[in-house]
Design a protein that fits this description.
Blueprint lengths: L1 H20 L4 H16 L3 H14 L4 H13 L3 H14 L4 H13 L3 H14 L6 H13 L3 H14 L4 H13 L3 H14 L4 H13 L3 H14 L4 H13 L3 H14 L4 H12 L1
Helix pairs in contact: 2-3, 3-4, 4-5, 4-6, 5-6, 6-7, 7-8, 8-9, 9-10, 10-11, 10-12, 11-12, 12-13, 13-14, 14-15, 15-16
Length: 281
């Protein structure tokens, strides 16, 4: 009898402790969550993840914490863990559009492109009146990489409809027009992108590629230089600038461009090969 009473008391004590340990404390959770965000902004990802875990411990049903944790995991290439975090977010909140978009990004980064497309298409249908520009832009990039340019253009156009002043979306649309052979429309769209943001590096670069194709070499040179003024370590812009100088038989300028490039990235094989080719010519 005494043994039975002991077991009952022990059980009551055990369940009492368990209940207390699992008690939700939203204030504590938010405190750890905010600290995690601050640490992530400082690129202290390990510490940020520890704080996210503590935030989850105090409020395991807050979908937003799992989503933000997933973003950090994705950033440090822990794709499987990121996928689990986004899936947990969706389990807790099936209408979390961004979690579905992020899950698609994980699938795309790990080579599961068709699954990524499904995630993004699903994200578009979750909320009827939502701004679906992010998912539409991702789908546009999917079709652009698959060389299905009409579908890419269709989705980029829809993204721009939601956000007509998004310079990145306009750049993607312009480059799809270029690849599809509509150079006039491409140039117009690139100009719109630069009207929004004069420092859109890829737009200057893609405009340079367009001018190369039109044999407007001085304009191409100017565009590549603008791209490099924004990001001096942009390797492809250095290569294209040197190639454009070569098209105008200006080997000296091409050599100087590559010398600048080699200062930024001395181990780049493409820089070295083209530089040696110019020296040998």
């Amino acid at each position: 009898m005494r043994r039975s009473i002991f077991l009952v008391l022990f059980s009551l004590f055990f369940f009492s402790c368990t209940s207390k340990d699992a008690k939700i404390d939203t204030k504590q959770s938010q405190s750890h969550y905010k600290l995690a965000l601050e640490l992530a902004q400082m690129n202290l990802f390990k510490n940020a993840l520890e704080e996210f875990d503590l935030a989850i411990k105090f409020n395991p049903k807050d979908a937003n914490i799992y989503r933000k944790k997933g973003v950090v995991l994705f950033r440090i290439n822990k794709f499987e863990e990121a996928k689990n975090s986004f899936q947990k977010t969706i389990q807790l909140d099936p209408k979390d559009v961004q979690a579905n978009i992020n899950l698609g990004m994980v699938h795309y980064a790990t080579g599961n492109k068709n699954e990524a497309l499904k995630n993004w298409e699903h994200a578009i249908g979750i909320l009827p009146d939502d701004n679906d520009s992010k998912a539409l832009n991702n789908i546009g990039n999917f079709y652009k990489n698959e060389k299905d340019l009409p579908k890419a253009i269709e989705h980029f156009q829809k993204a721009v409809t939601y956000e007509p002043t998004n310079s990145m979306y306009l750049n993607n649309l312009g480059d799809s027009y270029r690849l599809n052979g509509n150079l006039r429309k491409a140039e117009e769209t690139f100009f719109k992108s630069l009207d929004v943001n004069t420092d859109e590096m890829l737009t200057h670069f893609n405009l340079g590629i367009l001018y190369q194709e039109e044999a407007k070499f001085q304009k191409a040179i100017d565009s590549f230089r603008k791209s490099l003024n924004i990001n001096p370590s942009f390797s492809e812009a250095h290569i294209q600038l040197a190639n454009t100088h070569l098209k105008t038989n200006d080997n000296e300028s091409a050599k100087q461009s590559l010398e600048k490039a080699l200062k930024v990235n001395p181990n780049n094989k493409r820089f070295k090969e083209l530089y040696n080719k110019i020296l040998a010519s």
